[in-house]
Design a protein that fits this description.
With 698 residues, the protein is mainly β. It has a 15-stranded antiparallel beta sheet that branches. Strands 1, 2, 4, 7 and 9 form a 5-stranded antiparallel beta sheet that branches. The longest helix is centred in the middle third of the chain and has 8 residues, at 427-434.
Length: 698
């Protein structure tokens, strides 16, 4: 069903938007399998738009969600959904196009609905209920019941449902009952010939007990005098935990279930662990083996703070054939076709885990795969020399795995991989060192984090790469706050879909430049970028953003060698003030010299100290005004430094701390560049509150 030749304005910043209705006649008897919707619209920024499809049954498919990072214009796209599988096609389908963000206008020019499914025979009589007429469940336990009937019903009904249950347009009764008892529910099914009804007896029993069930591993390894963590995990939301028989140096957090510390005794310990909620307790025995030295695997990869386990068809072993540090390494088990060999450890984040690896494998057949908690973050294939990789570990305890897998045929070279020099670093340390600027505060607010690699760099050492498994329609960001004025220089490159997936640089959410495309799959040549950052605090952001479809090139971007040089000495007065106080390596860091930052922790921001006196490096309590009683009035004296031309100080007065107005002040005296001014408040005016407002001006 097509609606073409439209010219319907899409209201800006309006969730109601534009709705187009497509009516499928009641004499069309079809069970839906999937539906496509083609939308054509002109728009200044298509990422502002939001598109949904609602079926006659009331099911909503979210076809396109607004995402501010997509700044491409216009839309001419076909969306597909299987969310309406099994529903009846007949009835009113509605497509809503809305614009949820401000600043760009659009026009809907066409909308086409196509329904795919299986034709069903036209009914010759009213429906007859065919589903069972009894159902049972329990309070606080999910329950579902599907009404079925003969003769192709198009709508369903149910009255007298227990609290907590509801009926969908497709005839599904579902929810979580909240009351106990027996309920006679009248259910109905309707088509063009009428309605068939029946009584469904629903028996809802008392709430079932759901004590915890411990699900964490029941064996663990630790090393003497090395930090250790073990998380007791259990189902059904435990409210407390316990552990008995722990070796000296370890303790349990009874609220979170985390066993942690540094063991000071060796041996095998049978630790009783338990998890409890209001319904009961589950207890298990954790066999904890504390050894006097790290395993040979840990020693070979130069990290005796980690505890490694190995598995698969064959374990990892100490390597005698290759290493990166000139001493030793480990290698995957010598597996055969359709087998795997993996190495695991746990890492507590936030952190980065870095390592060197070497690979000899069948290209396109046998792979090295790296994952955290089962989520694959990287894979490599073929044969190459030692390379460096590093990945972000989010907060908490996480399982890290290196896995070598073989397909069903062909062996190449050693047919395995090596690992060496595994290191756990702090996030700031790694990002600062990789981008060659440890003086700035680096942040990654996106769900998918950037990785460390050394294959493509500008400094011949290392660089960051965007996530290689970034979903369509998503973006990944690395950013840092800086204080200006200053000069920013960085190097970047990309290998992506030309004019589809972009590597962007933004200042305060405004795009300054973007690149896309690739050089015969490889990345474009590295390019240097230079920007003058104005005075004040600013957010510098690098973003890799993907559109809705198509993977081209290597589908990634790289960032390296970032320098930021503050030019405070010749900047406005506030910048010059900072220049005379902070060390040069801290000046550009917006989390140290930003106007709202309280560097010394005395409750006064940097800008407060600048405006009213005091040092941002010393906990002091300079007062902006000094009161003086004088007969029938009170004087409040304050000083303005006329050299601070970027500062405006205004006295304000209030009766209730809610409604404020500017207070009159008078000139008292001038001493060099310091102007003394006074606010007079008559005692007869009653209770008054005085506030000194300081603001930055151009």
């Amino acid at each position: 069903i097509a609606q073409t030749g439209l010219s319907v304005a899409i209201p800006d910043v309006n969730a109601t938007g534009v709705t187009r209705t497509f009516t499928v006649p009641n004499n069309v008897f079809m069970r839906v399998e999937h539906v496509t919707v083609h939308i054509a619209a002109t728009h200044g920024k298509r990422g502002d738009m939001n598109i949904t499809l609602t079926s006659p049954a009331g099911t909503v498919s979210k076809l396109f969600l607004s995402h501010p990072g997509d700044v491409n214009q216009d839309m001419d796209w076909t969306f597909s959904t299987v969310r309406h599988w099994g529903e009846v096609a007949a009835g009113d389908w509605s497509v809503k196009v809305s614009d949820l963000l401000t600043g760009n206008l659009g026009t809907l020019t066409s909308a086409t609905l196509t329904i795919y499914g299986t034709n069903t025979a036209a009914p010759t009589a009213a429906p007859v209920i065919s589903s069972s007429l009894s159902a049972s469940g329990n309070v606080e336990s999910p329950l579902s019941y599907q009404i079925t009937a003969t003769n192709n019903p198009q709508t369903f009904s149910a009255t007298g449902l227990p609290n907590g249950l509801s009926l969908s347009a497709s005839g599904l009764i579902q929810g979580t009952p909240t009351q106990e008892g027996s309920f006679n529910v009248t259910i109905g099914a309707t088509n063009i010939h009428g309605t068939g009804t029946a009584t469904l007896v629903m028996s809802i029993g008392a709430r079932l007990l759901a004590p915890p069930v411990i699900s964490s591993a029941l064996s663990s390894q630790a090393v003497l005098n090395v930090a250790y963590n073990y998380q007791i995990s259990a189902t059904n939301t435990p409210t407390s935990f316990a552990a008995t028989g722990l070796p000296a140096g370890l303790s349990v957090n009874t609220s979170s279930g985390l066993i942690s510390g540094t063991p000071t005794a060796t041996g095998t310990f049978n630790v009783g662990i338990s998890a409890t909620n209001a319904d009961g307790t589950d207890s298990k025995t954790l066999v904890l083996n504390v050894t006097s030295t790290a395993s040979l695997l840990a020693q070979a990869v130069d990290n005796q703070q980690l505890t490694f386990t190995t598995g698969g068809n064959l374990p990892w072993v100490i390597s005698t054939s290759s290493n990166h540090d000139g001493v030793d390494s480990i290698e995957s088990g010598f597996i055969t076709h359709s087998q795997q060999s993996y190495l695991e450890t746990t890492v507590t984040g936030p952190a980065y885990i870095n390592f060197w690896f070497q690979l000899q494998s069948e290209f396109g057949g046998d792979y090295f795969r790296f994952s955290i908690d089962g989520e694959e973050l990287w894979y490599s294939e073929g044969t190459h020399a030692w390379r460096l990789l590093g990945f972000n570990v989010p907060p908490g305890i996480h399982t890290v795995r290196w896995n070598y897998t073989k397909n069903e045929s062909i062996s190449v070279g050693f047919d395995g991989m090596w690992l060496d020099q595994i290191e756990v670093q702090g996030v700031q340390q790694l990002l600062g060192n990789t981008l060659d600027n440890p003086n700035l505060n680096w942040q990654m607010p996106s769900a998918q984090a950037w990785a460390l690699q050394n294959r493509r760099t500008i400094d011949a050492s290392d660089a960051l790469i965007s996530p290689i498994f970034l979903d369509h329609g998503r973006s990944s960001v690395i950013e840092t706050p800086v204080t200006g004025p200053g000069t920013l220089v960085f190097w970047w490159t990309v290998s992506s879909e030309l004019n589809g997936d972009f590597f962007r640089f933004e200042i305060d959410q405004t795009v300054q430049n973007q690149i896309s495309g690739h050089d015969n799959i490889n990345n474009l040549p590295w390019a240097q970028q230079t920007y003058n950052i104005p005075a004040g605090q600013h957010m510098l952001r690098w973003r890799y953003i993907k559109n809705e479809a198509v993977v081209d090139g290597l589908d990634a971007c790289w960032l390296d060698f970032i320098t930021y040089t503050p030019t405070f000495a010749t900047g406005p007065p506030y910048a010059q003030w900072l220049n005379g106080i902070f060390p040069s390596n801290q000046l550009g860091n917006g989390l140290i010299t930003g106007p709202d930052i309280d560097t010394d922790g005395d409750g006064r921001s940097n800008f407060f100290e600048y405006a009213f006196g005091g040092s941002p490096l010393i906990r002091d309590f300079a007062q902006p005004v000094s009161p003086l009683l004088n007969g029938n009035e009170t004087f409040f004296n304050y000083t303005i430094d006329t050299t601070k031309t970027d500062l405006l100080i205004t006295p304000r007065i209030s009766d209730d701390l809610t409604n404020w107005s500017d207070a009159a002040s008078e000139f008292i005296s001038q001493n060099g560049n310091l102007t003394l001014r006074r606010v007079r408040i008559p005692n007869s005016a009653g209770k008054k509150f005085l506030m000194m407002k300081a603001q930055s001006v151009p």
